[in-house]
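FIELD: query
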Amino acid sequence: MAKQLGERFGIAECFSDLQEMLRATTPDVVHITTPPQSHFSLARQCLEFGSHVYLEKPFTVTAEEAESLIQLADRRGLKITAGHNLQFTLETLKMRRLVKQGFLGGKPVHLESYFSYDLGDANYAGPLLGNRMHWVRQLPGQLLHNIISHGIAKLAEFLDDNLAEIVARADQSPQLRSLGGEEVRDELRVLIRDQSGTTAFFCFSTRIRPSLNELRIFGPANSIVVDHTSGSLIRSKGRSYKSYLTYFVPPLQNAREHLRNAGANVTNFLRWQLYQDFGMKELIERFYNSIRLGGAPPIPYREIILTARIMDEIFAQIFPTRERATINDQIKKQTAAVL
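FIELD: result
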């Protein structure tokens, strides 16, 4: 398959062995897009060889592996990043500028991340459901593990490293049950609170229609909604209106926001900036620039590790047979020690 792809795109050399590839080509950067179980081993070998690494989501299977790779990259003076391309779409970049300018009126009070996924017909889900040894089902979080890092990473950007509580609940949709999903879960709801009091909610669903791919940020003064499905950003100001103006002014303001987004999307389309992979292109360019110019990588390592930690905790709760102490267990022990 690699040779066929090489012929199609004019790539002269194809390899089935990583060490052979590294020795033969001495790459500056390696993009790892294999199943997650191999991420840690492949990335470690590339870093030890001296190559920078772009690691597709999920970054690693566990937070421990994520920390180990980042520490190795630091020791070797190399850069590593995660394939969280939704962090660099046009609407997300605009959101980040607004937050930096103080539009929220302070630190976010509450965050909500929604991520929908269409299982499609049985032909799509069939290979996963029909094979217990499928690599997706071998992940600690199974189907969820391979998908939710995009949505969790959006929250990690605004949460403190010290988390006070995580509560996760998962279920199986009727559609998946009808396809013989067995233990596979495809409905997830998560509540999070950090030590500074910021709360967050994460929802992953294969049932919600129309599909949602949103980040909602609520501040002490104003709020922002980032809609990846329509490439839109909606600003909401916390201003109150007297009497019947409450029924007229806010809807008109929302209409203006939607019209503004439509106009911006038309402009970006004409400028060749409105396309599905813009976020990925932007992320890769920023990563390469950080290598060439010596700046910080596009995604802070703190956020990559926190995303992995949150995912570890979620999967420990929804698959409780796994033998691992959860963040909540650690919090309880710390509280008991203090008492």
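FIELD: remark
Confidence is low (pLDDT under 50) at residues 323-327, 334-339.
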